[in-house]
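tool=predict chain=A
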Amino acid sequence: MDLSLAPPAADGSGGSALRDGLLQVPSLANTYGAYLIGTFFGTGLYGFFVHQVYRYARLFPTDTLFIRLLILTVMILETIHMVFTMHTCYYYTISNYFNPAVLNRGIWSLNVIPILVGVNMFISQLFFARRVYLIGKHYRFVVAISMLFFVVEIAFSVAAVGEVIAISTFDSISKVNHLLAGTFGAAIVGDTLLTGSLMWVLSRNRSVETRQIEPFIETLNVYIINTGLLHDVLNTVSFIAVLALPHGLIHGSVSIIATRLYGNTLMAVLNSRKLNVSRGIEVLDGEVSMNIFSRATRLAAQERWNVPQVPDSSAPSVINIQVTTEMGGDMDKRMSKNPNVNMDEVRRTDWKTARQ
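tool=predict ok
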């Protein structure tokens, strides 16, 4: 399908062929132009993601192996995804800038993007699924349902890649739209289940006083970023775009940004932690029950994953004991003369005497 730049024949057939070839070229505004804009934003978000990974490595070097491997995997996938999107833009706009017929054919870096997006979403959402799982046993069913939808998302993305490779021209890309819509739709359902659970627990756990004194930007960060609501909204936009604009790549542009937000949200949640593994646990004597230690372990795991905690009144967090104070010297003499002496008044009198 490569177009020849040779002069047209005398009968005009060459010019007619050239015009026919140009008529088959897709519009750049809503295809590769939109994809290029998404790549620009995605590259900026990738730089922010790398900065957050660097900050995480300095602040939390003792995190569990699973979390560190999760971050490493997400970073590798994010890097591959960024390289592939940049290669696609370079191939169509630079390497073949004077070969418009190429615009109607797919390149490998563009064809495999759906599977990269699906896997990246799945790996990142493992972290959020673990957060909801640690909230309590009542939320484990929600986690199971959401993970089922994420598996369906992977299946749709694999099928989309197979269909993209099978088609020959950009004009046939609408055949892949139902598979892409399935990918985004499954991701939306899974994300909404996890995000809704986190927002529900946050609304129950945060007191009215906290909401009144907390800065507005902090509230936005907690409810929009840390719960994963933002990339859920962008997946919804991609889902609508792939159905409303089936012959363009606007959904691919939004998908690039949404994919970057998965990694950025993951790092934002990890870097906003305040680790204090014994928070709320005070042992004041030597006789404690095992549920105190089990609760301390559970709280430590929740803090490690930045899990919003629901009020738990089943186990006491503080053990109170009575303390007997022995006094001697002048205090004993005054108490022996007057057993009903007011101890607070005696302390205030001694304090005033000491100051004089």
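Confidence is low (pLDDT under 50) at residues 1-18, 282-288, 315-324. The CA atoms of residues 17 and 337 lie 120 Å apart.
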